[in-house]
């Protein structure tokens, strides 16, 4: 017997187990264990479901790795795309924000600010455009659910890029050149002498951008994407006519703005509360010097100083004198006070006549003649406040677009009574504050342009120039306020009012105008319905009719001189009323002509709360007649004008004319 030690026995046992395992692995095939049963020595035969699960697990094992990579890649791509969309949005919003900064920098003459903001606008728009042009956006545009919105975003960036890349660099250069030299309250316009080469580039970019916007498919486009396109189109529609007009008349505009030599202007402020043919009594006027676009207010003059002090001190008789000798047929149409008192200079609907009378006062007072004259009224100021925002007086009182008419034509008279000095100070403060607002240029040019056009269309703006080419420009747009001496460019008719009461009653006067025609008889009938809305609450002696007292007429009754005008060659065949309501040595029916325009006047009394209709019929001259220009005195309130389609056969169509005063028929 051989005895083994424990160590030997353990070693043998381990060796035997290792040998057994090797033998087991070598003979799996003969022990009844197949490759279908690799992990279970005693498992039964593989079933069909087990076989399918096993095969599926193998397939999943083979493809799960690549699929996970694809899914992750798509998720990453989606995240990148979303980030790019946000970046595009931020860039477009940044461009809009910087455009406002650019305007502010230009207004203040900040050259560095102009360059900085202009560069940022171009950079933002360029980056937004570049971002939307990559292959990721190409892929996204192929997804049906997202296609129209993706293409719409691309269109927005394309529009912004088209405008900014073409327009901003040359405009920025021009605007930067206009800064830094301004010494007055305006801007230096000499650099704009080169704007003629810039504006066509801007207009071309606008046209290309409009074509992109028009070709954009809006089907299913989100409002957040569509809205900016609408805003851009609106901006282009507003800016295009402004730029077109400036391009067409740039030399004249620059000359008027003092680019060649300093210009001296009178800015009249008419007061329809005391109505006159072209608007109202001229109580105040600003004397302005314009040099290279820099506007300086030299003085704020008043009729009180002129008529009570300046002219009498020079020997002029303001009661019986006459500053201007009118033709006999014109002189007999108006009362004599038209040519000797400044608040009556505009009793004629011919605005240049009023300018000529004011020029005569400059001769009498040894002051330089005006190179031009403009006229506006408080309603124009109200419209402009829509663009500039309200003004605040030293007292804390606010004057805005809604209350400007009342603040300038009614409230002060009740507040100050007959204290002329207090009222003059109040009106002067408002005028100076408004002038500061306008020359401060902290307003949107598109909004301001729209309000100026609106005021001109209402007949509230007149312009006269000593320069013939500038006067021709004013005539082209119907701003000259002249009575035409023929019917070539327009056929003028109109009803005008002059106050005889010496008060401010007409703030409470409202009226509408309408015209009908008989083409077979070649006649036109023009009518106006008038209403006096004053109440007993109005008690100021400055508002109530001063002249009414001596005539025994109620102080709230409007005493009006109503003027009916026919065009040159026409004949007034009837008026309603046929005769005036009042006759005395001064105020009575008149007839005559003004610049070859036949006219008659009728004195009309319009009591408190009364409504009356006045009208006249004109036999039109033979031959071709220019477009109808139906005029009326612009009052303190809006005037609705209606022209019946029956007038269309008598007058040439106004299409193609720049005259904003030509009436629309139909």
Task: Describe it.
The protein is an alpha+beta fold and 666 residues long. The chain is built from 17 helices and 17 strands. The chain has helices spanning 6-26, 48-108, 111-131, 135-140, 147-178, 195-214, 223-256, 303-313, 328-331, 351-364, 378-388, 404-409, 411-416, 420-440, 445-457, 468-476, 546-550; strands at 263-276, 279-291, 294-302, 372-376, 391-392, 398-399, 462-465, 491-499, 509-518, 523-532, 558-565, 571-576, 590-594, 597-606, 611-619, 628-632, 641-643. Strands 3-2-1-4-7 form a five-stranded mixed sheet, sandwiched between helices. Strands 13-14-11-8-16 form a five-stranded mixed sheet. A five-stranded mixed sheet has the order 12-15-10-9-17, with no helix packed on it. A hairpin with a 2-residue loop joins β2 (279-291) and β3 (294-302). α5 (147-178) runs antiparallel to α6 and α11 runs antiparallel to α15 (445-457). The protein is elongated and about 130 Å long. The termini are far apart.
């Amino acid at each position: 017997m051989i005895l083994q030690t424990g160590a030997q026995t353990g070693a043998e046992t381990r060796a035997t187990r290792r040998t057994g395992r090797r033998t087991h692995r070598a003979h799996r095939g003969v022990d009844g264990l197949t490759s279908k049963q690799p992990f279970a020595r005693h498992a039964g035969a593989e079933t069909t479901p087990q076989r399918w699960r096993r095969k599926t697990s193998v397939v999943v094992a083979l493809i799960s790795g690549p699929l996970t990579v694809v899914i992750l890649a798509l998720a990453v791509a989606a995240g990148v795309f979303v980030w790019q969309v946000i970046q595009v949005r931020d860039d477009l919003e940044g461009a809009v924000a910087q455009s406002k900064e650019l305007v502010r920098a230009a207004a203040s003459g900040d050259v560095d600010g102009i360059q900085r903001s202009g560069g940022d606008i171009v950079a933002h728009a360029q980056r937004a455009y570049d971002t939307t042009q990559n292959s990721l956006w190409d892929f996204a545009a192929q997804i049906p659910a997202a296609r129209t919105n993706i293409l719409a975003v691309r269109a927005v960036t394309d529009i912004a890029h088209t405008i900014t890349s073409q327009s901003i660099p040359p405009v920025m250069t021009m605007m930067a050149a206009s800064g830094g030299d301004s010494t007055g309250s305006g801007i230096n316009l000499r650099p704009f002498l080169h704007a003629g080469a810039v504006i066509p580039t801007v207009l071309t970019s606008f046209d290309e951008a409009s074509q992109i916007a028009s070709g954009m498919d809006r089907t299913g486009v989100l409002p957040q994407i569509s809205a900016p396109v609408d805003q851009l189109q609106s901006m282009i529609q507003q800016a295009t006519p402004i730029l077109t007009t400036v391009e067409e008349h740039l030399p004249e505009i620059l000359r008027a703005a003092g680019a060649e030599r300093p210009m001296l202007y009178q800015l009249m402020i008419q007061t329809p509360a005391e109505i006159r043919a072209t608007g109202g009594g001229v109580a105040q006027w600003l004397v302005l010097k314009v040099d290279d676009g820099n506007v300086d207010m030299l003085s704020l003059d008043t009729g009180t100083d002129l008529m009570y002090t300046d002219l009498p001190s020079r020997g002029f008789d303001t009661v019986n004198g006459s500053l201007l000798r009118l033709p006999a047929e014109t002189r007999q149409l108006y009362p004599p006070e038209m040519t000797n008192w400044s608040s009556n200079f505009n009793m004629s609907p011919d605005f240049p006549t009023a300018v000529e009378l004011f020029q005569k006062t400059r001769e009498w007072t040894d002051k330089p003649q005006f190179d031009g004259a403009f006229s506006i009224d408080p309603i124009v100021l109200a419209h402009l406040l829509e663009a500039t925002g309200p003004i605040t007086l030293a007292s804390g009182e606010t004057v805005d677009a809604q209350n400007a008419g009342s603040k300038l034509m009614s409230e002060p008279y009740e507040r100050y009574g007959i204290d002329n000095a207090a009222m003059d100070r109040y009106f002067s403060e408002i005028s100076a504050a408004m002038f500061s607002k306008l020359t401060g240029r902290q307003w949107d040019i598109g909004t301001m342009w729209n309000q100026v056009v609106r005021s001109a269309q209402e007949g509230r703006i007149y312009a006269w120039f000593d320069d013939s080419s500038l006067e021709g420009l004013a005539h082209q747009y119907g701003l000259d306020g002249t009575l035409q001496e023929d019917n070539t460019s327009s056929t003028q008719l109109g009803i005008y009012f002059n106050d005889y009461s010496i008060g401010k009653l007409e703030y409470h006067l409202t009226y509408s105008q309408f015209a009908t025609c008989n083409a077979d008889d070649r006649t036109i009938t023009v009518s106006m319905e008038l209403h006096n809305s004053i109440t007993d609450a109005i008690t100021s002696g400055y508002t109530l009719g001063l002249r009414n007292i001596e005539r025994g007429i109620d102080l709230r009754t409007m005493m009006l001189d109503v003027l009916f005008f026919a065009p040159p060659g026409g004949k007034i065949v009837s008026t309603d009323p046929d005769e005036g309501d009042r006759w005395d040595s001064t105020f009575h029916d008149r007839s005559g002509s003004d610049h070859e325009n036949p006219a008659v006047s009728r004195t009309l009394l319009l009591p408190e709360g009364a409504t009356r209709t006045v009208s006249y019929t004109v036999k039109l001259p033979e031959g071709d007649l220019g477009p109808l220009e139906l005029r009326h005195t612009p009052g303190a309130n809006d005037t609705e004008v209606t022209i019946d389609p029956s007038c269309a056969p008598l007058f040439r169509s106004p299409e193609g004319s720049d005259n904003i005063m030509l009436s629309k028929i139909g």
